[in-house]
Amino acid sequence: MADFAVKLANFAKNAENNKKRKLNNVNEPAPLTPPSISPNTAILNNLSSHKFLHSLYATPSTSTSTSTSSTTSTSTSTSTSTSTTSNAKPPPSHKLHLLFLIIDSLPHSHIWQSYISSLKAIHPTLEITVTTHAKYPVEVSDVWVRSTLLGHSHCPSWGSVEITRGMIDLLEAAVDASSSSSSSSSSSSHNPMEKYVFLSESCLPASQPKNLLSALFSSDKSWLRLQSTPNNGYANEGQWMKMSKEIPPTKIRKADQWIALSAREAKACVWASQEFENQQLSTYKTKTKTKTPLWRLFKQCSASDELYFPTLLAILNLESHVEVREVTFVDWEGFTKNPRVFESKDVGEAVRKAKEKGCVFMRKIKKELKLVDWESEICS
Length: 380
Prior knowledge:
The chain is an alpha/beta fold. The protein has helices spanning 2-25, 39-47, 51-56, 69-76, 82-87, 109-122, 143-146, 161-183, 209-216, 233-240, 263-284, 308-315, 347-356, 371-378; strands at residues 95-102, 127-134, 194-200, 204-205, 222-224, 260-262, 322-324, 328-329, 361-362.
């Protein structure tokens, strides 16, 4: 009985102590636990510190501008002594990649072909490539345009993520082709600059060839009119709020669809898209797990083509390599859902407005424009 009494006393004492402990801790906050993040978000967060990006940006960027003087120096060097000529360096073999998104035609194909010829005449070492994604490739009848087509189509509808997929494929094809040509060419030793420019079927140059080259290659920065916050209710509800939760909210960015990427940013975007999928395989450690392509995280967003590349550059911490600048002039003044379409008689106004904004291209130009009329406007 004595043992039972001792045990009972101990039980009562312990119960009293537990009661006091609970009363003392009642006002203490619960311990904070760090919020968990998905494996895909963890992969995205780690991309910016990857050794590939470190090596890509280890070499300082080229800052030499392109102008007509580079061709002049080449021609005058022949009149100098043999020793001077042997030491002279040829002008950098810069590259310009025109990436078109069209439906089934490029109405101003004749103007583009003439303009490309003019660019090469001014800068003979300039390498120009044209790559096109068509919604209906079998309907494309222009022989020159057909020669530039990708071998497939995502058949995008207005505002769909398939437009973004077309842009991704255009950039990947152009970067791969450029890398292949650089590896087999000695001109790569001259550290050329490259620009990858996205264009629509209604786009046209708004600058004379020499002015366009001088502007695009004045620095090695990419051109995007970046926005880090929604600029209206549509952007907030249809883009920011519809973004996948796996994209860090502080990294969401927006820009015009018609951007110009420099070589390193273009290569970084192509690499990141592929690396995102590759790391999923090692993270999930199973071959049965279906990889999620990066574009799928933007699928629910309206006009994801305005979000994909700006957001990816922010995720990679590459915004310091961006010049906040418009590439292509689009007239939204007084318009909401669709921008203004310029009639042939109003092209001069479009050119003037584009130049005022520092744009080198313009869009939404009517199909019936003649080469001579366009040339007279950009030369005026």
